[in-house]
Write a structure and sequence with these properties.
The complex is a heterodimer of chains A (about 240) and B (about 325).
Chain A: E1 6-9, E2 14-18, H1 25-40, E3 46-51, E4 55-60, H2 67-79, E5 89-97, H3 105-112, H4 116-125, E6 128-133, E7 140-143, E8 158-161, E9 165-169, E10 172-175, E11 180-182, E12 185-189, E13 210-215, H5 218-229, E14 238-239
Parallel strand pairs in A: 5-13
Antiparallel strand pairs in A: 1-2, 2-4, 3-4, 5-12, 5-14, 6-7, 6-13, 7-10, 8-11, 9-10, 9-12
Chain B: E1 4-16, H1 36-45, E2 54-66, E3 70-75, E4 81-83, E5 86-88, E6 93-97, E7 101-106, E8 112-117, E9 151-152, E10 163-164, E11 180-184, H2 193-201, E12 204-210, E13 214-218, E14 233-234, E15 239-241, E16 249-251, E17 258-259, E18 263-267, H3 269-277, E19 283-284, E20 286-288, H4 291-310, E21 313-314, E22 319-321
Parallel strand pairs in B: 6-22, 11-20
Antiparallel strand pairs in B: 1-2, 1-9, 2-7, 2-8, 3-6, 3-8, 4-5, 4-7, 10-21, 11-18, 12-13, 12-19, 13-16, 14-17, 15-16, 15-18
The chains are: A alpha+beta (about 240), B alpha+beta (about 325).
Chain lengths: ~240, ~325
């Protein structure tokens, strides 16, 4: 299968492989496929891979491989990529809607002229794609938000949004992996810690994963949060066929 | 008690080892030293591995008390260093007796300095490294800059002598070494030929808006005719990002892993430490080189660093300082 792509020079130890310039599931599929191929069959001298929406950033050590040789090796790999996306992983992430963390739920429903329950049902109805991890440790950019929930970000970001907050920014959804400032609108929270440096498995999500939300009550959330604080990841992925 | 106690902290003093690799795909950049050469040198002067955990400071290093006997070395640039008030030299290892107070003044020709202690700083590794990532609050000493009263653990000192530098890391001060070299791309096609000319024709200024994550440049605006928003892709230390203001900023050791601004060019690895060391207010030019040449320059840079680190001479092992030190 032939895919359009280009190599973008990015210094003397970095190469960008670009499959497109847009947010597009097919483009992202190719990114994920190449990332998986390179993880399974590493190219000697490549030290790090960052898959993004539409490109891969490869760090390499010119002591072991030069950029020109890396381009040749990658061209062969890309030519051999299948046209069917590999089976991925799916997560079910418990979510507690509203409350102090989901502070924008009512406003969002009012803006959309729909009952709160409809916002919740729409949010629960979708399967989300992890397009990439970036910005902060374990921060997942999620595509697949139902169109009626697309909402611009706040004009003025808030200073501190807690870890676990589930938000909407434009046409994307997210789960805050670390506390910090954010201009997204938040409609709920999850007790799952997507990033915990003390845990054996510090990061849960990876680019290419899918996820669905499953509603829980505030009480259930509190119980799960206590377990998560002790290092329990709470969730495990299933492999999609 | 053992270790090293911060009496009065310098600016942005952090624990830094060689940094984390392999986690950019999970949103965690390497961190590690702003000037890897100076960091490695400090370590080797006291007998540590080049990428061992040492302290990094910005501008001035402050005062610290050795709670145990320890070999130490300071590198980065020219500055006044004293042990119990007696002057000592940067670029040389010293054996300090327990109770000594080490005082490190302002760097005069550089921005980032390093203090290595034989045996290295042994704060717990986080995600495989001791490097402090300030923005994410990861690693080092509780993920933050050091404060007065902090006590840092020190590992068992390797059996080695104090060493002294013979050949300098760089031929001259960071400013006297010509332009900062870049490879164009990955998004240079977003900029018109006129603007690409400006990149190398006009001098840029290092502004005071700088930290371990990025350096904001002044002096020249680089408007992107293709627009200043891209769908996020990857970024690395050295990426020259151009946000809507037109003022470029260069990502450094704590660079974010992905970003939505076009990157007109990437500073070459061989010049990244020198760039980091430019004092605020300094002016410099960019020059473009091919990727192939940039790789050659990187290999040459690594050879030169190895030769500096392999050609140190023995320094005095006389124990200096001791308790009752006054500053």
């Amino acid at each position: 299968m032939r895919f359009p792509y280009s190599f973008l020079p990015s210094g003397d130890q970095t190469l960008t492989v670009e499959f497109g310039t847009a947010i597009d599931p097919q483009i992202n599929d190719r990114v994920i496929a190449l990332a998986a191929d390179l993880a399974d069959y590493p190219i000697a001298g490549v030290t790090e891979i960052t898959p993004t929406y539409r490109s891969l950033l490869l760090r390499y050590d010119p002591h072991n491989i030069r950029g020109a040789a890396l381009e040749r090796a990658l061209a062969t790999r890309i030519a051999g990529l299948g046209d069917v996306a590999a089976a991925g992983r799916e997560w079910r992430v418990p979510i507690c809607y509203g409350g102090a963390v989901g502070q924008d739920l009512q406003d969002l429903a009012d803006m959309k002229g729909m009952p709160v329950q409809q916002v919740i049902d729409l949010h629960l109805s979708a399967q989300y794609r992890v397009y990439m991890i970036g910005f902060a440790p374990g921060f997942a950019y999620l595509g697949g938000l139902p169109q009626p929930l697309h909402t611009p970000r706040l004009a003025k970001p808030r200073q501190l949004i807690p870890e676990g907050a589930v938000g909407i920014g434009g046409q994307q959804a997210n789960i805050n992996s670390v506390a910090g400032p954010s201009g997204w609108r938040f409609i709920g929270w999850t007790p799952v810690k997507l990033f915990d440096p003390k845990r054996a498995q510090p990061f849960l999500l990876a680019a290419g994963d899918r996820l669905r939300f499953a509603q829980i009550t505030a009480d259930e959330g509190a119980q799960l949060a206590a377990r998560a604080a002790n290092g329990d990841p709470l969730i495990a992925p299933t492999v999609m066929s | 008690m053992t270790g090293l106690r911060i009496v009065s902290p310098g600016l942005m003093v952090t624990v830094q080892d060689g940094g984390r690799t392999g986690l950019r795909g999970y949103g965690v950049s390497a961190a590690g030293p702003m000037d890897a050469g100076a960091h490695a040198l400090a370590n080797v002067l006291v007998g540590n591995d080049a990428d061992a955990a040492a302290l990094e400071f910005a501008g001035h290093g402050g005062q610290m008390e050795m709670l145990q006997d320890a070999r130490i070395a300071v590198t980065g640039g020219t500055c006044d260093v004293t042990v119990n008030g007696q002057p000592v030299q940067p670029g040389q290892g010293y054996h300090l007796a327990a109770g000594s107070v080490l005082c490190i003044g302002q760097l005069r020709d550089a921005t980032w300095g390093y203090i290595a202690v034989a045996g290295a700083i042994t704060t717990p590794p986080v995600l495989g490294a001791r490097a402090t990532h300030l923005r994410s609050g990861l690693g080092g000493y509780f993920g933050r800059s050091l404060q007065a009263g902090d006590i840092l653990p020190i590992g068992p000192a390797p059996d080695a002598r104090c060493r002294r530098i013979i050949y300098p890391l760089r031929a001259a001060t960071p400013m006297a070494r010509g332009p900062i070299r870049v490879v164009l791309g990955p998004q240079d096609d977003r900029f018109s030929p006129d603007v690409l000319d400006q990149l190398t024709a006009q001098p840029f200024t290092v502004t005071a808006q700088r930290d371990r994550m990025a350096m904001v440049l002044g002096g020249v605006q680089l408007p992107a005719s293709g627009g200043h928003d891209i769908v996020s892709d990857g970024s690395v230390p050295g990426s020259v990002q151009v946000p809507g203001s037109g003022n470029p900023l260069i990502l450094m050791a704590e660079s974010q892993t992905t970003g939505g601004y076009p990157k007109i060019a990437t500073v070459i690895g061989a010049d990244l430490g020198r760039l980091a060391q430019l004092p605020s207010g300094a002016q410099f030019h960019f020059a473009t080189v091919s990727r192939d040449m940039a790789e050659d320059l990187w290999l040459a840079h690594c050879r030169h660093l190895r030769s500096v680190l392999n050609n140190l001479e023995n320094a005095s092992d006389t124990v200096i300082g001791g308790s009752g030190g006054r500053v």
